[in-house]
Design a protein that fits this description.
The longest helix is centred in the N-terminal third of the chain and has 17 residues. The chain starts with 12 loop residues before the first helix and ends with a strand. The protein is of the alpha/beta class. It has a single domain, classed as Vaccinia Virus protein VP39 (Rossmann fold, 3-Layer(aba) Sandwich), CATH 3.40.50.150. Helix 3 links the parallel strand 2 and strand 3. A 7-stranded mixed sheet has the order 3-2-1-4-5-7-6, sandwiched between helices. The protein has 5 helices and 7 strands, in the order αβαβαββαβαββ. The structure holds S-adenosylmethionine.
């Protein structure tokens, strides 16, 4: 389904997706997150146009104690989407980078102290080797108590992604099928943020 964000919709499916994502983050991720005692840094990889930017900053700000204590770096390889994100979310404490996430380790100045690395609708089904690199490079940016959070559109892709992550030495802390996720009309078996998983590096 193609959603044009410039067209008003009586049901505004994206706003509803964001409400569900907020609930999911609060119920599935928050209980596992140990705050580092400083600002919460969020790395959002393969973010596309980053519809979830405000939701992540809101939930992160509540966790960290204040919106001023959260910072997000979001990256995608697609120029147009990142430009859209910059236009929509310039008011947030966030940077939107045009970057190949398979090479995010070459970005030394980003640091490796992210409390949360987020991959919404990871795309493991389309290019498994690329996504293994993204998983590997993303988790290398976590601080020692940091969490990787992925969401998936469909069951088989989620299972395969978790298997690949475990083979990379990443432990699944929780994996949950979200309730009431919005079905994609033209893609049977797929829905928005259908699955969420919380993972961490093995100690
Ligand atoms: C299924 S889309 C998900 C986009 C967004 N996270 C969402 O939930 O709407 C997968 C995204 O991965 C991005 N992507 C694929 N390979 C990438 C790479 N090597 N580096 C950065 N982003 C990449 C694509 O451009 C696309 O935006």
């Amino acid at each position: 389904m193609i959603i044009d964000p410039s067209q008003p919709s009586p049901i505004d499916p994206i706003a509803q997706d964001m409400r569900r994502l907020e609930d999911t983050l609060k119920s599935v991720v928050t209980p596992h997150l140990q705050l580092p005692g400083k600002d919460l840094r969020i790395l959002n990889l393969a973010c596309g146009r980053c519809d979830e930017a405000e939701t992540l900053i809101k939930v992160g700000g509540e966790l960290a104690g204040a919106p001023s204590q959260v910072e997000m770096v979001a990256a995608d390889i697609r120029i147009r989407e990142i430009r859209q994100a910059r236009e929509r979310f310039g008011h947030l404490p966030a940077k939107f980078l045009i970057e190949d996430a398979t090479k995010i380790d070459s970005h030394g100045e980003l640091g490796d102290d992210f409390g949360l690395v987020f991959l919404r609708h990871q795309n493991f089904w389309h290019g498994q080797e690329i996504w293994k690199k993204i998983f590997d490079q993303g988790t290398a940016k976590l601080d020692k108590n940091g969490l990787l959070v992925i969401t998936s559109y469909f069951d088989k892709e989620h299972r395969l992604a978790l298997k690949a992550l475990e083979e990379l030495g990443i432990e699944v802390v929780e994996s949950r099928r979200t309730k009431g996720s919005r079905a994609l009309a033209d893609a049977p078996g797929k829905s928005v943020d259908r699955w969420v998983a919380v993972l961490r590096r093995k100690k």
